[in-house]
């Protein structure tokens, strides 16, 4: 059974139920041919892709009423003595529903047949009554007929035979079918059919977006993107049903719940939305998905709203109050280090048992030293908890215009493996005044849960704990990526596959992230060669799974067949780094390393490419061709300026020239390595040399202050 939206694309046998309100014109007189044609087109596409499609359709009564009204007007014996208005009124009273169904059914089926013929698909009409389901023999025959049609690649089109069907069930029929649902409309009919033919998915298409917590027009009513009928906490208030059709939302929910109990996945959605059926089948967040799996959590849209409320409260705090939150986050990491490490140990053991990739396992581990470094880092973040005045302009005497930094709103941050990312992201969000929803890797589940709780504990008593939220499943992430109304920026941190997936799924929400970490170190002939070896060791071996670890070392051609090159190869051998040669290096060596399968590859572990280049310009050309614009280094004593483009994100607010510009970081150093700073051999100063203007929240006004 399909338990999550991600599994919908694998559904093979699908029933599409079309409600009267969807395919009937607003004046109730005839069919909406445009919507009907769109539905047929989508069903045909899925049928031609190999799925077995079945349709349950309303519309016969409306179509018959349209035709019979015309007939009635033409045959009125008193047409000359009655006004057109009287004729129309009398015809409405005279035409019975059963007669409309009988007359309209043949026309409706003929219309479907012509529409499906455009896509080379055959259709079959099957009219049923309640007795066909209540009687075991009739039910068995119906099941065999439908299965045969589906296997012959024919689309069965079903409807109740309203011309003869009784309006109520007899006591004997109901008592003889104890396990079934009473068929009162096409919603219950489609549910019975779905179970009868073992359908994978039932799509109930109507003129509403799905199931709401109350009538859609009611203030505060919220669309439920997933619904578990077994969760008693979900209270639903139903409004009046549509003026057309015999069902209503309450009927749809009952039918969906019954089908779900019999292992058929169900979605209630709006068929008026463009390509709604195809988008549902692609797993997109459309309509209400019925599930038997309790969420055990607040709906994601509610979490996002709570995070937004928390962000607004954060913005009203003083600098000292936000600093207090982050300092508490930092101290919690030390005070509860034992509990954190115990949870991390569980994650580590479970990851090892399931054979998780070594690159992911290496990111997973926490130690006392890591927690201490993490705590110190959070304290440093707290010191920056202020809003910068980027520009201050005096427009006129007494009229001052200030451009200041402001929070983005609500962030959705997705990261893999590294549980130490969670406190960092939480602290940065609080520092900047943003609410945040966090989704860590499942392999760090236990670590993430305790770290999340500790970060939430630090928020009190200043702001709500819900200012930061924890997302548990990929399905929830997929849901959030469709909610541009609630999420302002998505930041994925992890593999290129993760980032690409997020970018593809995001709907009108900007994604800030690199898709790959294909990083380079170029060693020039004029480099300090001892420094070069130190940089290569640090950039490849210190943290090989990091996204800024080097994947290809580019060596100046004059350094090949020198003691330095031999030292480079020996360094990799001692560090157990597997080497692959580029095509140029391979052609220059008698016994080269294995040829690299690609020079555009992110290993994420102790593997590395080596290639030869002519000079710095050749190196830059190589990097621009094979790199990912992440982190690239040049080791040389010959000062040079090079341009390697990086990713860009658009500006916020009115866009002039400044809005079309972004920034680029150029780091110039003398062989500094991360290890030297971790070990304490060198220290960060963070000494600001250029004065900046600061907005002091405690004074609730803007004033210039020298840092």
Give a brief outline of the structure.
By secondary structure, this protein is of the alpha/beta class. Helix 18 links the parallel strand 12 and strand 13.
Strand order of the largest sheet: 3-4-2-1-5-7-8-6
The overall pLDDT, averaged over residues, is 82
Number of helices: 25
* Shape field: elongated
Distance between the termini: 61 Å
Radius of gyration: 33 Å
Oligomer state of the chains in this structure: single chain
Low-confidence stretches: 90-94, 170-176, 641-662, 690-707
Largest sheet: 8 strands, mixed
Query: How many β-strand stretches?
Result: 21
Approximate strand percentage: 15-25%
The amount of helix comes to: 40-55%
Secondary-structure-based class equals alpha/beta
Structure description:
This is Delta-1-pyrroline-5-carboxylate synthase. Pfam families: AA_kinase, Aldedh. GO terms for molecular function: ATP binding; glutamate 5-kinase activity; glutamate-5-semialdehyde dehydrogenase activity. Helix 23 links the parallel strand 17 and strand 18. The strands form four sheets. This protein has an eight-stranded mixed beta sheet with strand order 3-4-2-1-5-7-8-6, sandwiched between helices. Strands 17-18-16-15-19 form a five-stranded parallel beta sheet. A four-stranded antiparallel beta sheet has the order 10-9-20-21, with no helix packed on it. With 707 residues, it is of the alpha/beta class. Helix 16 (368-382) packs parallel to helix 17 (421-432) and helix 17 (421-432) runs parallel beside helix 18 (445-459). It has 25 helices and 21 strands. The relative contact order is 0.07. Helices cover 40% and strands 16% of the residues.
């Amino acid at each position: 059974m399909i338990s999550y939206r991600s599994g919908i694309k694998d559904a093979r046998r699908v029933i599409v139920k079309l409600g009267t309100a969807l395919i009937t014109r607003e004046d109730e007189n005839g069919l909406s041919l445009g919507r009907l044609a769109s539905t047929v087109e989508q069903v045909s596409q899925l049928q031609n892709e190999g799925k077995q499609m079945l349709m349950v359709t309303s519309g016969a009564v409306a179509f018959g009423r349209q035709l019979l009204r015309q007939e009635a007007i033409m045959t009125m014996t008193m047409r000359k003595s009655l006004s057109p208005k009287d004729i129309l009124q009398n015809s409405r009273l005279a035409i019975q529903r059963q007669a409309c169904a009988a007359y309209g059914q043949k026309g409706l089926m003929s219309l479907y047949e012509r529409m499906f013929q455009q896509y080379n698909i055959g259709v079959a009409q099957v009219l049923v009554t309640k007795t066909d389901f209540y009687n075991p023999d009739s039910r068995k025959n119906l099941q065999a007929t439908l299965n045969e049609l589906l296997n012959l690649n024919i689309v069965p089109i079903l409807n109740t035979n309203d011309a003869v069907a009784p309006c109520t069930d007899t006591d004997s029929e109901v008592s003889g079918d104890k396990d079934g649902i009473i068929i009162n409309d096409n919603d219950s009919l489609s549910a019975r059919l779905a179970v009868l033919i073992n359908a994978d998915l039932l799509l109930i298409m109507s003129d509403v977006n799905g199931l709401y917590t109350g009538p859609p027009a009611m203030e505060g009513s919220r669309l439920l993107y997933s619904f578990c009928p077994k969760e008693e906490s979900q209270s639903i208030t139903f409004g009046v049903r549509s003026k057309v059709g015999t069902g209503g939302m309450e009927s749809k929910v009952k039918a969906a719940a019954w089908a779900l109990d019999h292992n058929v996945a169900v979605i209630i959605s709006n068929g008026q939305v463009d390509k709604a059926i195809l988008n549902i089948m692609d797993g997109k967040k459309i309509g209400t998905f019925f599930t038997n799996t309790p969420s055990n959590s607040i709906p994601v849209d509610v979490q996002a709203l709570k995070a937004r409320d928390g962000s607004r409260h954060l913005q009203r705090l003083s600098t000292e109050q936000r600093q207090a939150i982050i300092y508490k986050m930092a101290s919690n990491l030390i005070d509860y280090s034992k509990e954190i490490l115990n949870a991390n140990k569980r994650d580590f053991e479970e990851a090892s048992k399931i054979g998780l990739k070594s690159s992911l396992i290496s990111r997973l581990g926490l130690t006392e030293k890591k927690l201490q470094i993490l705590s110190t880092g959070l304290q440093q973040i707290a010191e920056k908890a202020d809003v910068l005045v980027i520009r201050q302009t005096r427009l006129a005497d007494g009229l001052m215009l200030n451009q200041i930094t402001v929070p983005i709103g609500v962030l959705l941050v997705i990261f893999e493996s590294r549980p130490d990312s969670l406190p960092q992201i939480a602290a940065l969000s609080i520092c900047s005044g943003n609410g945040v929803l966090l989704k860590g890797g499942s392999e760090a589940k236990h670590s993430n849960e305790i770290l999340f709780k500790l970060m939430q504990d630090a928020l009190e008593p200043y702001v709500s704990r819900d200012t930061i939220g924890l997302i548990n499943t990929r399905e929830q992430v997929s849901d959030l990526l469709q909610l541009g109304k609630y999420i302002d920026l998505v930041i994925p941190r992890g593999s290129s596959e993760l980032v690409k997936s997020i970018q593809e799924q995001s709907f009108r929400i900007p994604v800030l992230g690199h898709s790959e970490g294909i990083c380079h170190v170029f060693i020039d002939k004029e480099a300090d060669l001892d420094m070069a070896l130190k940089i290569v060791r640090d950039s490849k071996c210190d943290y090989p799974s990091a996204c800024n670890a080097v994947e290809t070392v580019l060596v100046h051609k004059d350094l090949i067949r020198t003691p330095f090159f031999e030292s480079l190869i020996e360094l990799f051998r001692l560090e157990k780094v597997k080497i692959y040669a580029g095509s140029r290096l391979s052609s220059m060596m008698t016994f080269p390393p294995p040829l690299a399968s690609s020079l555009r590859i992110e290993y994420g572990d102790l593997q590395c490419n080596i290639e030869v280049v002519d000079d710095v310009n050749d190196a830059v050309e190589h990097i621009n061709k094979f790199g990912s614009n992440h982190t690239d280094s040049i080791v040389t004593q010959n000062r040079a300026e090079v341009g390697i483009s990086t990713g860009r994100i658009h500006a916020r607010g009115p866009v002039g020239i400044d809005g079309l510009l972004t920034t680029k970081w150029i780091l110039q150093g003398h062989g500094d390595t991360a290890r030297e700073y971790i070990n304490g051999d060198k220290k960060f100063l963070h000494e600001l040399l250029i004065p900046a203007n600061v907005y002091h929240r405690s004074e609730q006004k803007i004033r210039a202050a020298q840092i």
